[in-house]
Automatic annotation (TrEMBL):
Protein name: Glucose-1-dehydrogenase
PANTHER family reported for this sequence: 3-OXOACYL-[ACYL-CARRIER-PROTEIN] REDUCTASE, CHLOROPLASTIC (PTHR42760:SF40), SHORT-CHAIN DEHYDROGENASES/REDUCTASES FAMILY MEMBER (PTHR42760)
Species of the source: Sagittula stellata (strain ATCC 700073 / DSM 11524 / E-37)
Molecular-function GO terms, alphabetical: oxidoreductase activity, acting on the CH-OH group of donors, NAD or NADP as acceptor
Family: Belongs to the short-chain dehydrogenases/reductases (SDR) family.
Pfam families, per database record: adh_short_C2 (PF13561)
InterPro entries assigned: NAD(P)-bd_dom_sf, SDR_fam
Length: 247
């Protein structure tokens, strides 16, 4: 892998939560970052402004991670503005409604699989196509992928199980082309994703089920993503890193 130290980075779902923490951290470390978001223009602009105030560079591209054309446009924006990315974080994801399988609509099931699974595949594919010298791909899994999400997130958990498979298989497929592919599997992280699914109380009540006795922060995930992207992780590929306080 031959990259400049300040290689450009693409992040999907980068305007809020874990994605935003990662954009801010990577930009503060000197990486120009191009990130996508779904709809919240104000949050995306606020992040770009914050990064600029801190002396970094971040560019927002509105677009659905599940849309092939939007993903291509996101990577094209990075190539045009900063050159080919050296790192990609396929982070965008949604939970869908919190409910048991018997109450899940086919439409909600398809949307979760489309954003989380197809979106990650399309992002990884765009990375392969736009990074001639290879680089580091970090995928967003979840501890739910192996815990199962019974009774509330089975659809979401299964989508993250697919990400684990993508990580292991793509690391083998793309390794000879100069790519390292890894995933992070966070546990209970303090972002708005829980409240958006009607489970805002979850972070307060579920913290006691974590061996470390607390929920995690978006910054704690961001630091792991930045490490996996960096040359400090130069011989790590095909690995899924749990960030869950032991849960
Ligand atoms: P969040 O706070 O809800 O932020 C989601 C971000 O993704 C926002 O920037 C949002 O944009 C963007 N986004 C949503 N759908 C998108 C789409 N279709 N296309 C492009 N961007 C999209 O979520 P989070 O908690 O940071 O979660 C980020 C990732 O971490 C997800 O894949 C999630 O499954 C995973 N994860 C989270 C936790 C946790 O406890 N928080 C645990 C394990 C894994 P807008 O602002 O425009 O909506």
């Amino acid at each position: 892998m031959s990259r400049s130290e300040a290689f450009p980075v693409v992040v999907t779902g980068g305007s809020r939560g874990i994605g935003a923490a990662t954009v801010a951290l990577l930009a503060a470390r000197g990486h120009p970052v191009v990130f996508s978001y779904a709809s919240n223009d104000a949050a995306a602009q606020a992040l770009c402004d914050r990064v600029a105030e801190e002396g970094g560079q971040a560019v927002a591209c509105k677009g659905d991670a599940a849309d092939e054309g939007a993903v291509a446009a996101l990577f094209a924006a990075c190539v045009d503005r900063f050159g080919p990315p050296g790192g990609v974080f396929a982070n965008a994801g949604i939970t869908g409604p919190a409910c048991g399988l018997d109450d899940l609509s086919a439409e909600d099931l398809r949307r979760v699989l489309d954003v989380n699974v197809a979106g990650s595949f399309l992002t990884a594919q765009a990375a392969l196509r736009s990074m001639p010298d290879g680089g580091a791909i970090v995928l967003m899994s979840s501890r739910a992928g192996r815990l199962g999400g019974a009774g509330e997130w089975l659809h979401y958990a299964a989508s993250k199980g697919a990400i684990d498979t993508l990580c292991v298989g793509l690391a083998q497929e793309a390794g000879p082309k100069g790519f390292r592919v890894n995933a992070v599997a966070p546990g209970l992280i303090e972002t708005e994703i829980h409240a958006a699914a009607g489970r805002g109380d979850r972070l307060k009540t579920a913290g006691s089920s974590v061996p470390m006795g607390r929920t995690g922060t978006a910054e704690e995930v961001a630091r792991t993503v930045a490490w996996l992207m960096s040359d400090d992780a130069s011989y790590i590929s095909g690995t899924i890193v749990d960030i869950s306080g032991g849960r």
